[in-house]
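Obj.: predict assembly geometry.
Materials: sequence records (below).
Method: joint structure prediction, all chains together.
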Amino acid sequence: MITTNPSLHKEKQHRNDLNEMFQETSALTWRLFIQLIRRPSTLFAGILQPLIWLFLFAALFSNAPIDFLPGGSSYGEFLGAGLIVFTAFSGALNAGLPLMFDREFGFLNRLLVAPLSSRSSIVISSVIYITSISLLQSFAIMTTSALLGYGWPSLGGFFLIAITLLLLVFAITGLSLGLAFVLPGHIELIAIIFIANLPVLFSSTALAPISFMPEWLGWIASINPLTFAIEPIRMAYSNSVDLNAVLINAPYGEVNGFSCLAVLLILTVALFFLIRPLLNRKLA
Amino acid sequence: MFFIQLRDLFKSYGPVMALNGLNLKVPKGSLYGFLGPNGAGKSTALRIICTLLAPDSGHVEVGGLNVLLEEKETRRRLGYVAQDVAIDKILTGRELLQLQGDLYHLDKKHKKKRIEEMIQRLDMHEWIDRRCGSFSGGMKRRLDIATGLLHEPELLILDEPTVGLDIESRSVIWGLLKELRNNETTILLSSHYLEEVDELADEMAIIDKGKVIASGKPDDLKKELGGDRVTLRVREFSDEVEAESVRKLIKNINGVSNVMVNQKQGYSLNFLVQSNDVISNLSGHLSKENFEVFSLSHSRPSLDDVYLQATGKTLMDAELELAGKRDLKLENKKSMR
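Observations (raw structure tokens):
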């Protein structure tokens, strides 16, 4: 007599679903990497632009007074953290573009007609791809900074940088993917990327400390998500990695390392919940 | 047994009613032609069957599944070849097929086997490892059809698959469709090429303004017209008054039926005749009323005649009329996910 165990069947079905999801997600991710390998210009541009900034700004402020920056660091050392974050931020902000092109050229329909185990695979593959690229680009900036003599983080610092960047990239990638579904076309998405990119950078502590800014800009910088990513990374380059240490002297009070990471985590989770209904509706 | 059943399907894009109570039944294992001018609602209906669009109201069934409730299972059973070829220009043809295989969860061995079969069957071996961006329209379409068939679907839906194709590609595709039909795959083929539907379809439906206005076997539909088609002009460019006078005269002749004035073609007259004798006597009847025969063409009825009979205009005239009314931007926006 053949007996069937419902829970065993359910477990097998669940395993099957996971295998299918892995298969489709890895195939979609691989497609994005093939595109990158065959058209690597965006990867190189994403690395070159911050490097040019590093050279130019470091040269521009090389004769700045020694007490201009906190801790007496050189401007190149100060700038490194800002550019690492800026690189990851720019890369993540562009995450929606491939999806937007898939929408416009009808390729998304090919994916939507397929019996995907979960349509989240489309989003997950984009997140994996953009995260990998952003980390790769950031690592290239770190290496160049090190070669220019601006230092290299300790192992603990390295982990802190990775966690900080991951949180920031997840949040901004989610935002960009959401925009890719909301906006009517790639022109509008590119316009938003152009508008957001540099003002967000300039209104953070990437290029100058809050103490150097007028009060109104100090307020903006101290609520700018980039600042909450830049300051932990700046600390990661110092000798001591202490998340209890005050990293931002904001007009509204002092912010320590834990708080910075908590803000990034809250931002990521909030954006996830904000975008999820939209993705569910668009991918339903 | 019907593999596809659409009942009272409605869909609008803003003020434009794309489907207006569409009813359709497609027999299992048949090649079913879906004929109508661009803008008649064919693509909208196909996108609803493929789960890409939700109707405003109505019932959609594929292979016994309620498409609106059992979307995933429906997707497993169908292959869809869209009107606009959607391929990734950066991938090679083979890579696109591999991706497709993974999206349909084929195992490695089966995927490889099916890809080779598709390459062989659609004669793609010479160029399949080149990037899709370098393909001609015919190559892209063949590859697109291969992706639709890779997982051996029970239902293949093709939206205008041979538009703008070279003769060789069209012939390859027609051959494949005939072969699939013989293998019991149900095929729903939308087209505005009359000869394509006439050549391939076992059964067909003509759609106009979002609903089916005639359906059946192409030969039966032509036979139902009841005779041969005649197009008559008494002058190169008649006017409405003259055409109406001729219409009144002709409609009273024995053996003549379905007399219509075709305004779009210089007020020519279209009608059916039951025998050649009627045509022989036609000039006599006309000369009695001082009309001359400027031109007269006589042909076996075609699907265009079926369309003309059902709508009062030729398929081409219908397309021109609809082209001016469509808001493609709005339709694209509404249909873009």
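Conclusions so far: Residues 231 and 297 of chain B are 5 Å apart (CA to CA).
To do: check interface contacts against the pulldown list.
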